[in-house]
């Protein structure tokens, strides 16, 4: 678990990425962490994780995201894609997501499904969320703790340096991104359809209905598995350039931000 404490800026790490042998390239990645936010309410964090138009403002790694359709008043199906630095291929998900207010706390979970009208795309690797969840726990009128857990199959043999970077830098950075976005959300929302929150008010949901029988569980072994284990870290860092031949260290941090950025 990673604990990010707002006031101390300290990071306490236990093993976050689990595999049978971390000396080998891994195919499954497991991340769990929490961030303590003493000046953001649980409801605000919950809204930020749901609000798609706002996500387009703060999630710089996202290529596209959209809701496909609704299943129930608190469940839907959606699409999310994000960019990875070359030579790694960009990834995407199709997931079923459900959410539930628990008094002053909130829960969001998702897992990958197959939708007949949204098959894998030519220029993306279809990754698989085996299970992803957020628990937003209220600790006061204007304070909260965000817990996050995910197990993802990125559908590729990833080099060890990618796994290490996710553990040490990318995952904590992504949680801080959510926190910073939560701080700015109330002001943004006041100017952008402040009353529109279909995740809280189901009567506002205008998505088409999805027939549950059209969905099946997305099994990782039914998708193409690509080998990216030869990707070299130094080449990815480049010399500060941002073209196809070289990517800056900042861009490299975008590699697998998927593990903490997708609520889909």
TrEMBL record:
It comes from the Eukaryota. CDD domains: START_STARD10-like. It holds the Pfam family START. One of its GO terms (molecular function) is lipid binding. Gene3D superfamilies: 3.30.530.20. GO terms for biological process: lipid transport. SMART domains: START (SM00234). Residues 227-248 are annotated as: Disordered. GO terms for cellular component: cytosol; membrane; motile cilium. InterPro entries: STARD10_START, START-like_dom_sf, START_lipid-bd_dom, START_lipid_transfer. Residues 35-187 form the START domain. PROSITE patterns: START (PS50848). PANTHER family: PHOSPHATIDYLCHOLINE TRANSFER PROTEIN, START DOMAIN-CONTAINING PROTEIN. This is StAR-related lipid transfer (START) domain containing 15. It comes from Neogobius melanostomus.
């Amino acid at each position: 678990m990673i604990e990010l404490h707002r006031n101390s800026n300290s990071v306490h790490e236990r093993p976050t990425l689990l595999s049978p042998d971390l000396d080998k390239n891994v195919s499954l990645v497991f991340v769990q962490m929490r961030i303590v936010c003493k000046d953001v309410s649980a409801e605000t964090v919950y809204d930020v994780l749901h609000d798609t138009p706002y996500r387009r403002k703060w999630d710089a790694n996202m290529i596209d995201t959209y809701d496909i359709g609704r299943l129930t008043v608190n469940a839907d199906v959606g699409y999310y894609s994000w960019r990875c630095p070359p030579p790694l291929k960009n990834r995407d998900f199709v997931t079923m997501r459900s959410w539930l207010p628990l008094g002053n706390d909130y829960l969001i979970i998702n897992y990958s499904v197959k939708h007949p009208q949204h098959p894998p795309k030519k220029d993306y690797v279809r990754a698989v969320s085996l299970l992803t969840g957020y628990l937003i726990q209220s600790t006061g009128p204007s304070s909260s703790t965000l817990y996050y857990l995910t197990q993802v199959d990125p559908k590729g043999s990833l080099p060890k340096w990618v796994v290490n970077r996710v553990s040490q830098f990318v995952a904590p950075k992504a949680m801080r991104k959510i926190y910073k976005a939560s701080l700015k959300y109330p002001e943004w929302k006041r100017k952008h359809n402040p009353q529109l929150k279909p995740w809280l008010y189901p009567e506002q949901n205008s998505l088409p209905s999805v027939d549950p029988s059209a969905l099946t569980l997305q099994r990782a072994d039914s998708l193409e598995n690509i080998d990216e284990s030869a990707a070299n870290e130094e080449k990815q860092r480049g010399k500060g350039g941002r073209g196809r031949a070289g990517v800056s260290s900042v861009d490299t941090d975008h590699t697998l931000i998927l593990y903490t950025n997708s609520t889909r």
